[in-house]
Design goal:
By secondary structure, this protein is an alpha/beta fold. The chain contains 10 helices and 8 strands. Strands 3-2-1-4-5-6-7-8 form an 8-stranded mixed β-sheet, with helices on both faces. α2 links the parallel β2 and β3.
């Protein structure tokens, strides 16, 4: 059986690295994507995989990543949008977007849409790493996607994880007929370096004694691996949100198809506007 090509972002550490190890052992051709060159290369060498370095805080790097992937891989069977995190204090990226929003939602939205021709030709599965924070903290306002008026780290992160689910649903709505299958999932509270390089108070929780009660990265990656290897339409429902390999209840806003469609349109306009900012030669 020919190995499938599975691209995993945020794969230099945590559940992304664990999923990469497991899928590689199962004979899949894993492509590792991370922000840190040293950490990403280390994981890639460990499992004998190709790797790419991309910082999602800069959309030009996301576009470059998409171009590199399309050039090297005419077929991509699974795209796991796993990169993300909570950021702490409100910051803007070089592109002028709130950092939590860009890294967790806008960058994976851009990467997926930039790869759409390859993904549809491959009948690919797109997996988006969400979080139960979508229900705990998410309260999405389309008029304030950048959380300019009532910012908090929890609200920004909860909104971004809710956006992951809305993106999953709308991607299914728009592209299922073209061969795309998609799912979002909550990995659980995993003992990783989550929030370690941010100002979020969560960084202290993940370093405290409570760490011993958290899931291992292998346990957190289980649903990702399952979604990547099980059969969509048979083992799981495309467009849905999962936890522990089962359908999970999300924020009530996650089931608003109108909200999902409008988020898509606004996200597409934002990345299109960013293209206009670039200084292309005449």
């Amino acid at each position: 059986m020919t190995a499938r090509t599975i691209v995993i972002t945020g794969a230099s550490d945590g559940i992304g690295a664990s999923a990469a190890r497991t899928l590689s052992k199962q004979g899949e051709r894993v492509v590792v994507v991370g922000r840190s060159r040293d950490k990403t290369e280390r994981i890639a060498k460990e499992i004998g995989a190709h790797f790419f370095v991309s910082d999602f805080a800069e959309l030009a790097q996301v576009r470059q990543l998409a171009a590199q992937l399309k050039e090297k891989y005419p077929r991509i069977d699974v795209l796991a949008n796993n990169a993300g995190g909570i950021m702490g204090k409100r910051e803007l990226t070089l592109d002028g977007h709130e950092k939590t929003f860009q890294i967790n939602h806008l960058a994976p939205f851009l990467l997926t849409t930039e790869l759409m021709d390859v993904l549809t030709a491959s009948n690919a599965t797109v997996i988006n790493t969400s979080s139960a924070a979508n229900s705990l903290y998410g309260k999405l306002d389309l008029g304030d996607l950048e959380t300019t008026t009532k910012y908090s780290a929890n609200l920004a992160y909860g909104n971004a994880k809710l956006e992951n689910i809305l993106f999953t649903a709308e991607l299914n709505n728009r592209y299922q007929a073209a061969g795309i299958s998609t799912a979002a999932f909550h990995p659980g509270v995993v003992a990783t370096n989550f929030a370690a390089d941010t100002t979020s108070p969560f960084r202290f929780l993940y370093r405290s004694f409570l760490n011993r009660f958290m899931l291992s990265p292998e346990q957190g990656a289980d649903t990702l691996v399952w979604l990547a290897t099980a059969a969509p339409g048979q083992d799981w429902v495309s467009g849905a949100y999962y936890a522990k390999r089962a359908l999970a209840k999300a924020n009530k806003q996650a089931y608003d198809s109108g909200l999902a469609g409008e988020l898509w349109e606004r996200s597409a306009a934002m990345v299109a506007k960013d293209v206009d900012k670039l200084d292309f030669p005449a």
